[in-house]
C-alpha cells in the first residue's frame, strides 16, 4: 500500500497571503481523503493543480 499526503494549509483559522487554514489531501492507492478542509481549500487544490478527486471522502 502506498500513500501520499499533501498539506494544503497548516495555519490558523484566519487565512493570510502566506498561510492557509488547516487542510490535507491523503491519496491512498488513488482513493482520496480530504481531511479537515478549511476555508480556501478549493483555492489551494487549484494552486497546486490537483484535480478535484472523483472518489473522495471528507473528514471535518
Structure overview:
The chain has 1 helix and 4 strands, in the order E-E-E-H-E. Strands 1-2-3-4 form a 4-stranded mixed β-sheet. It has one domain. By secondary structure, it is mainly beta. 12% of the residues lie in helices and 37% in strands. The mean pLDDT is 84.
Task: Give the arrangement of secondary structure elements.
Blueprint: E1 3-9, E2 23-28, E3 31-35, H1 41-47, E4 56-59
Parallel strand pairs: 3-4
Antiparallel strand pairs: 1-2, 2-3
Mean pLDDT: 84
- Kindly state the percentage of residues in helix: 10-25%
Q: Helix count, per DSSP? A: 1
Query: What amount of the residues lies in strands?
Result: 35-45%
What is the count of structural domains?
A: 1
Give me the secondary-structure category: mainly beta
* Main sheet strand line-up: 1-2-3-4
Largest sheet: 4 strands, mixed
The sequence of SSEs as H and E is EEEHE
- Pick out the low-confidence regions: none
Q: What is the terminal-to-terminal distance?
A: 24 Å
Name some characteristics of this structure.
single chain; mainly beta; 60 residues; four-stranded mixed beta sheet
Short description:
With 60 residues, this protein is mainly beta. Helix content is 12%, strand content 37%.
Amino acid at each position: 500500500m502506498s500513500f501520499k499526503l499533501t498539506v494544503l494549509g497548516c495555519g490558523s483559522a484566519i487565512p493570510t497571503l502566506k498561510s492557509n487554514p488547516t487542510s490535507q489531501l491523503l491519496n491512498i492507492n488513488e482513493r482520496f481523503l480530504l481531511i479537515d478542509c478549511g476555508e480556501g481549500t478549493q483555492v489551494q487544490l487549484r494552486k497546486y493543480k490537483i484535480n478535484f478527486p472523483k472518489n473522495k471522502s471528507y473528514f471535518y
